[in-house]
## 1
Amino acid sequence: MFLRKNHAKFTTHIVLVILSFILTTNNVVVGHTIKIDKNVGATLHIEPNDTPTAGEVSQVWLALTRQGGKVIPLEDCNCQLSIYNEPHNNQKTPLLQPTLKPIQAERYEGIPGADVTFPKPGNYLLQLTGKPIKSGDFEYFNLHFSVTVATGKSVNITNTKPSINPNIKANTKQLLDNIIEPQESPSIIGLLSSLLVGIFIILGIVLFMMQADKRG
């Protein structure tokens, strides 16, 4: 009995190691993150190219595989995906808990997936828990994945001078010319002042001549 239990455990570990090796070396899933808990292995992939961007919708899918390499579809698993900020620090309430839906990705069909929008750049913890719909298919599992989210689209701020509409610029110049030109030409008040000064000078000359004639 003891030998049988040890043999079963040894066989399980060998199968999972081989599964991990196959998933790791498969060209289709190169770069994906693989985790194993008990007799369940999972491959995490985030579109596009495992590089999610903050503020943009990313498709997250997880290829679940039980002992022996058989895929576990979502219909056979009561799965829950929870997303936490890193560092996790035993957060009880997840930041996000997206609804899982069966999707087809690469060579997998009906695997759990979800559309996720990470609110800001940084590190996140994705936790996938699950138990079989049909008892005995596989054991309860709890898998953790670390994900780094890149900065979203940013607005380039450059030190540029505001452009001036040529029409506005021309109109402004014309307006300034109209304001300045009257100052350069003699005004009506200036003409009247000069005329009055001239009249006083003439009257003064006339009075002076009249005074001179009386004396003579």
Note: Strands lie at 33-37, 40-47, 57-66, 77-85, 101-105, 108-117, 122-132, 141-149.
## 2
Amino acid sequence: MFRAAVRCGLGGTALGLVILAGFAFIGVPVVPTVTKPPAAALLTADDLPPGFAPETALSGPAAGDACAALLADPAAGWDGAVKRRYRQVGTGALVWEAAARPAGDVLADLRYRLGSCAFVVQRRPAGYLVEFTGGYLVAARAGRTVVVLRYTGPAGAPVLRAALAKVAALT
């Protein structure tokens, strides 16, 4: 009986080592936890009024106080966020946009942080709008995708309509 127990123990150990070696050779499958937002969620230069051209999105933390930094990059810290920036030649109008599929309720967190900066947060279907001197910020959710857009410059209504149409098309 002792020999049977030893044989069983050695057999189990050998099987465990074979399985371990197999995963070491093949690799353990990893389920991604961060997914990129669909490209359809983001604006392109064709969606914007004439004269807008892509610019390189700024990297690194924004300068200024916490509220200025929040307006500069509302999606800071969101895993998998895709950010784009456009400037209109002649007017200097700037469109900054980010889309992500973050975990948790980032819209509620962003709304709270904007409210603590004394911005008036206006509710909109699937999101909200914040107006500030010289522009606005709009945030919305379509399914798992969250889109944030900041506009500074004159006559921002066409940009807002284009962004809302993109978000509506995701649903």
Note: Residues 1-30 form one domain.
